Amino acid sequence: MGKALEITDSTFEELIQGDQPVLVDFWAEWCGPCKMIGPVVEQLAGEYEGKAIIGKMDVDMNSAIPAKFGIRSIPTLMIFKGGQLVDKVVGVVPKTTLEDKLNAQIEATV
């Protein structure tokens, strides 16, 4: 079963350059809504293994990338493809919303 990658300021840029969509969950340990969506992100990591990269970035440990994208509210989930931001969700959303957004990016590759 896949597990969400721990993404850092130093690994972010290289990670988002590939052809596969990359979902990044910007979160913090103290954030209640982040804890609600965390298990969903972990489920997606398993279900999309080989099709998309699913990762999490702790905004308290990594400030450069969240600042670069102007993240002010967490959880913020962003989808990147080929190094570009292609979709974004702020707050807790149903798993199906994230699946729809990921599937749209995966299908765009085919």
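Second entry:
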Amino acid sequence: MLFTTTFVLFFILSFGVRHWLAQRQIRHVAAHRETVPAEFAQSITLSEHQKAADYTIAKLKLGLLENAFSAVVLIGFTLLCGLEYLNQALTDLMGNGIAQQMALLCSIFLISGILDLPFTWHKQFGIEAAYGFNRMTPKLFVLDMVKGVALGAALGLPLLWVVLSLMASAGGLWWLWAWVVWTVFNALLLWLFPTFIAPLFNKFKALEEGPLKTQIEGLLKRCDFASQGLFVMDGSKRSAHGNAYFTGIGKAKRIVFFDTLIEKLSPGEVEAVLAHELGHYKRNHIRKRLLVSFAMSFVMLALLGWISTQAWFYIDLGVTPSLEGYNGGLALALFMLVSPVFGFFFTPLSSLASRKHEYEADGFAAEKASASDLISALVKLYQDNASTLTPDPVYTAFYSSHPPAPLRIANLQRLNQT
């Protein structure tokens, strides 16, 4: 029962830390609700600042409920033997083997998705709608969900079958072959996404000829960046939030602007935002993140390869493994359920690395475009997206992938003066 005790301790600690951090953020944002930070006082009104505070707090409160509910579901699957009952029922129905284990994993995904649906719905049609950001219809919401499930099945089921087959027949080093398959699969997705996957959900059209396109092409030439094209995406049919990104690998790279971004920003500001995104590519952030992701998947699969052979891993989490049958899917299901409890404590490290990359990308944008244009663009985006300007420092250090607005603006102002 040692692993049971360890799991329970980490579970309580992770749940407690999540709750404590969310409450800190709520209190800090609420305490600064009545005053716009001095550096933003000329560009953001008090009502806009208060809207951002209320929007942030509303999302955090929903997150607290979701965190508590997820904790109950996790305990239900593990220590209360929900996974054991589900596995036994499917075994009685289908016998033991890869098909039954695939059904087990698909059932968990389906149950988890159904249980999460009310939170997703409330976020979209409750919070996002209340603050003027939602443009999605219930019909589009359902259509997106159906497409997502179909796409997940089309891509995920063959991958799952390959991994489970390797677990059954590739010996003790099955995890190494599974890692190779996983790595190739993700590289293939990066190549397929811009041309085949993204168009299933959004419409893309070429950026029209004009001053903006001329300015962007000049930036790409200065940055020595070759892409397959410049595209505008109909992000406005789902949300009022704006963004820009590039996607794909090799010759499949595309630069994509949300139509909402182009509507809200001047050509110089759009150029500065894109220069920031290109900074991630030119400073090798994307390559580094991919390498870290592949390294982490290597470690996790190696750990799964070992722990799946240990009886205590199953028994201490409320599951009875088959002594003569096949437990590949059961091991994978348990691992996916419990590993986030332990992995949660590495979150500050990834957040720190991400913030460092954001500063570096801002520096690249200041060099290749305009720091002042990026500052004005960020202020507009903070304003339009109702992003809080006064986050709690501890919450930021733990979770935030981007530096707090005042620090980021101050850094860009310093770069603009050098």
